[in-house]
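R.M. (postdoc): so does anyone remember the format we settled on? I'll just put the structure tokens first.
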């Protein structure tokens, strides 16, 4: 067992783990935490969010995910305690599930099922844009409201597979596997895309 003064106190969110580790090494065995206490403390949702641990059911693979900030959620009118993560998982048949988890609880707030594989996902203004595989070389962009998780708009991408989505203050950029970049204005519902 190392000397406790040799273990530097973490200066990040991991200080809690450093303290727990130091308690486990205490010279007096009766002052060490029990296994049950350690399991309870490390299983708390606050600890899981620090460690970024999200259980994924057996048989599913983690797919692209994105974070929606608390500021963006509040700007859209949602009362919330924390930012959220949109986690995509897929089964062997490529059906994808999207779970929306507040980072403070890491418990699913909303669940969205799709029948197609998610290629990429990004937070764009008050929506989350999801590119779904649609056939061999087609994709479809589905746009979801960040507060309700409801589908608000769909964009078919014929003969193009969207592989990345990014945004600036003016545009939403959708890059494809064929090297095309589509530029959508932030107010996408009234204007046709520009091609680059």
């Amino acid at each position: 067992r190392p000397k406790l003064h040799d273990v530097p106190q973490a200066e990040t969110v991991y200080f809690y783990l450093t303290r727990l580790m130091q308690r486990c090494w205490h010279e007096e065995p009766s002052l060490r935490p029990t296994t049950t206490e350690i399991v309870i403390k490390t299983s708390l949702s606050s600890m899981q969010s620090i460690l970024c641990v999200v259980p994924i059911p057996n048989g599913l693979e983690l797919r692209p995910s994105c974070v929606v900030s608390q500021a963006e959620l509040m700007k859209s009118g949602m009362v919330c305690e924390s930012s959220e993560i949109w986690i995509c998982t897929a089964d062997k048949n490529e059906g994808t599930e999207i779970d929306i988890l507040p980072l403070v609880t890491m418990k699913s707030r909303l669940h969205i099922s799709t029948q197609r594989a998610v290629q990429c996902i990004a937070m764009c203004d008050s929506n989350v844009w999801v590119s779904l595989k649609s056939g061999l070389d087609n994709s479809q962009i589905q746009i979801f409201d960040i507060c309700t998780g409801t589908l608000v708009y769909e964009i078919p991408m014929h003969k193009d597979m969207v592989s990345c989505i990014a945004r600036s203050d003016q545009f939403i950029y959708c890059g494809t596997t064929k090297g095309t970049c589509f530029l959508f204005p932030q107010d996408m519902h009234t204007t046709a895309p520009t091609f680059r």
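R.M.: ...and that's the designed sequence above, right after the tokens. Also worth knowing: The longest strand covers residues 61-68. DSSP finds four helices and twelve strands in the chain.
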